[in-house]
Design goal:
The structure is a homodimer.
Chain A: E1 6-13, E2 23-26, E3 32-35, H1 46-68, E4 72-84, E5 92-104, H2 108-122, H3 124-129, E6 135-143
Parallel strand pairs in A: 5-6
Antiparallel strand pairs in A: 1-2, 2-3, 4-5
Helix pairs in contact in A: 1-2
Chain lengths: ~140, ~140
């Protein structure tokens, strides 16, 4: 999804005074993501960013595939449900992705096939994470 | 780092009109991360968010551990160098994390040990990704 094959990302400590742990991630594009050890309205945690990446990655794939299949989508939300260990390192133990698609005369087979293609072929973040955690997907079709 | 063991994250399509693929991730804390299929100053890509998460995760660990070891850090940047496959799914093939630590009389052993603890014990994102990709770490100590 629009990335170089090789790249360098800069993650800079913003609050040098203890106990602050706010970092700002700077991308070549100019985009910035603030991250912190505690979640707040101003910054997500790194683990939240991983979940965000998974939902965004599969969502971008699926909306693109549905449009290629001439499906009329009027609303779309990806809900990522995750569970983590309590012990360090606090890795995910289970992830479920729920696709909630709203549209006109949506074909369930088109939705299922788009999700399958994302999960098995296109979504890089899914492929990165599934080496270490089981990920399941399901979908709901909602009226327009 | 401040997360619930079980959680639900909402990733919502913002641009319903084709070919837009901007999603906004909404966390319980109120934090938001915009993601898009193409990187821009307004939104990172999902794969960029994964790299951000890795750099932020280890950075938060290491600055916390260095402070516990009474190290005086005056500047700190984590540079994440990544390589990906060109074929789908475009997973990482290699990641190197470079810690650039600036401070007064920094002890190289304290820096090395903090990085080792993050990589092997505390950094959840590192543990999640290393199931699928080799990750190496090194550091540079810079004068205050």
């Amino acid at each position: 999804v629009g990335d170089q094959v090789r790249r360098q990302t800069h993650v800079v400590l913003e609050t040098v005074e203890a106990p602050g742990s706010r970092f700002v991630v700077r991308f070549d594009s100019g985009a910035r993501i603030p991250l912190d050890g505690r979640s707040s309205p101003e910054a997500a945690t790194p683990v939240e960013a991983v979940i965000a990446a998974l939902g965004g990655c599969t969502g971008i794939d699926v909306i693109s595939l549905l449009r290629k299949k001439r499906q009329v989508v009027t609303g779309y939300e990806v809900v990522v449900e995750s569970e983590r260990r309590e012990e360090h390192p606090r890795i995910f133990t289970r992830i479920e992705i729920v696709h909630r698609v709203r549209g006109r005369d949506l074909d369930p087979h088109a939705v299922a096939e788009s999700i399958r293609l994302s999960d098995t072929k296109y979504c890089s973040v899914h492929a990165m994470l599934e080496a270490g955690v089981p990920i399941t997907s399901r979908f709901e079709i909602l009226p327009d």
